[in-house]
Task: inverse folding
């Protein structure tokens, strides 16, 4: 069998840290991927991977080989793909991020990837889980509001959002058009978690102090928070895209002045060692969707 095939399998295993993931990406069986690696190890005369409980770890020889061959293997694949644009469509792409963002903004992109022939697996998690899955190569891409460590990760801006204080029209008389700290402190606050990340940011912008309050309810689902606020159960702070329709329909009210509305950013993040032409094209599809 061609050494080129062995090297392609090696490079995918190196980037994913898993023979089974490499096999899935390449459309071959896991035993076939293992045979490719064994054949290459026999050729170079050194072990390339150390088997672990979860996946494999590259040896120094593998690191050296990957640096030497990656530009050429990627170049060949990119050139072939330029002649046959759909040659690498298909396979599975793995994501992790917020279910709320997927619900409101990311489903058209997921549909586009599915229509292009990809299988999509989306995991939901908080910041800790997002970076744990990136680090152990469980996912190809993450969507997160935190700026990653540039030493290990590449990232690009995906979406800009504004934070808005929102409540139902039924609370307008109580809150007024210029909310004050005392009034808000006396009304039920519905928040994502005990740390009040969105509330703290907006409170600081409006009152130049930390919020001296606790939530009446915490629940890690923006859609539930939105509905409870619409139902008049309290007030909250939500990203603008979560509540734009309800604001337009008059089901929610936001007294937040535009000039002090804090801005937050969502990033598409991927591990530097996961760079390859196939994932680059998937990334271009995603970013093009949000640029339009």
Result:
């Amino acid at each position: 069998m061609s050494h080129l095939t062995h090297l392609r399998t090696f490079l995918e295993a190196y980037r994913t840290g898993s023979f089974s993931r490499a096999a899935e990406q390449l459309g071959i069986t896991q035993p076939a991927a293992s045979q490719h690696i064994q054949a290459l190890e026999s050729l170079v005369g050194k072990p390339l991977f150390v088997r672990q409980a979860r996946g494999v770890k590259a040896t120094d020889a593998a690191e050296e080989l990957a640096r030497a061959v990656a530009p050429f293997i990627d170049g060949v694949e990119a050139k072939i793909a330029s002649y046959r644009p759909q040659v690498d469509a298909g396979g599975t792409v793995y994501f992790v991020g917020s279910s709320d963002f997927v619900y409101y903004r990311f489903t058209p992109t997921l549909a586009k990837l599915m229509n292009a022939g990809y299988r999509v697996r989306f995991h939901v998690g908080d910041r800790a889980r997002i970076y744990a899955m990136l680090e152990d190569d469980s996912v190809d891409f993450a969507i997160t509001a935190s700026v990653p460590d540039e030493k290990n990760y590449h990232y690009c801006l995906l979406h800009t959002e504004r934070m808005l204080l929102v409540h139902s029209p039924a609370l307008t008389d109580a809150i007024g058009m210029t909310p004050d700290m005392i009034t808000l402190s006396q009304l039920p606050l519905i928040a994502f978690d005990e740390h009040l990340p969105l509330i703290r940011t907006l409170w600081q912008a409006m009152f130049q102090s930390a919020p001296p309050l606790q939530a009446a309810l915490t629940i890690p689902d923006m859609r539930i928070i939105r509905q409870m606020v619409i139902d008049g159960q309290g007030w909250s702070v939500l990203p603008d895209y979560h509540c734009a329709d309800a604001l337009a329909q008059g089901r929610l009210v936001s007294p937040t002045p535009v000039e002090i509305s804090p801005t937050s950013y969502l990033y598409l993040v991927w591990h530097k060692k996961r760079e390859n032409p196939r994932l680059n094209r998937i990334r271009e599809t995603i970013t093009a969707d949000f640029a339009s």
Summary: The domain at 3-83 is CATH 1.10.10.10 (Arc Repressor Mutant, subunit A).
